[in-house]
Write a structure and sequence with these properties.
Elements: E1 2-6, E2 11-18, E3 23-26, E4 32-34, H1 83-97, H2 103-119, H3 123-138, H4 147-161, H5 168-172, H6 180-198, H7 210-220, H8 224-237, H9 246-260, H10 267-274, H11 278-288, H12 292-295, H13 303-307
Antiparallel strand pairs: 1-2, 2-3, 3-4
Amino acid sequence: MSDAFCSDCKRQTEVVFDHSAGDTVCSECGLVLESHSIDETSEWRTFANESGDNDPVRVGGPTNPLLTDGGLSTVIAKPNGTSGEFLSSSLGRWQNRGSNPDRGLILAFKTIATMSDRLGLVATIKDRANEIYKKVEDQKSSRGRNQDALLAACLYIACRQEDKPRTVKEICSVANGATKKEIGRAKEYIVKQLGLEKGQSVEMGAIHAADFMRRFCSNVGMNNQAVKAAQESVQKSEEFDIRRSPISIAAAVIYIITQISDEKKPLRDISLATGVAEGTIRNSYKDLYPHIAKIIPSWYAKEEDLKNLCSP
């Protein structure tokens, strides 16, 4: 509540502000002192420095520091109807004359955002991919290259750097037709360009089989106990010199756990869920088989259960 002069009471009285109607009402006589007031406070809370004058939460979208104008440029939409054709043509010409220099970046960022959403990636990975693409684009050396492969490679590198790796096959599934080979070439090109810029090798982040386990287990449809056993098994497997890719080891461990459990899964289902070829899973299984007794947790499978596993 605050005080204001009431013309009926002829003195300063406490007033109540009705936010829904925008009315300022005298608390004693009920006289509406002011109506349809404009609420100039924020629509939502950000818990930022509210004492500052530059309140960013009143209106407008978020700024983007990667763009020249911060992402706050205005684009004139084309109105509908015959009367709007003349308006849109004249305004359109003026808009094209001062075309946005960041138009290519905006389109690239939208493509990265779409790919990130389809893969269910968090915002930090999307932002990192945007930063990587901006650095490559600033060097003006990516002309003539497959744009979809370049954007997909930026996303792949961002996932690695944020310790949330995705397989090239997963990235390829949202890359608008870019092949694994094209994405691989684009990745090597980006790493090289960023290395030249920094004068040192680009840190990609190590890949471990455990990084893929929860997602792969979810794709297979394993229960919580089986998932826990698979995660423990894949961590134990790192103690042995198994010269296979982390993705192959993860797929092979999942195959072993499903064969021990009551709900056995065929090799084909494991291959589809992990994106690893059946032959590769078999070869990885052969390498893991001599160490199975030490890899599989004892609380999940007894020695007799392990003996019932088919030898490779």
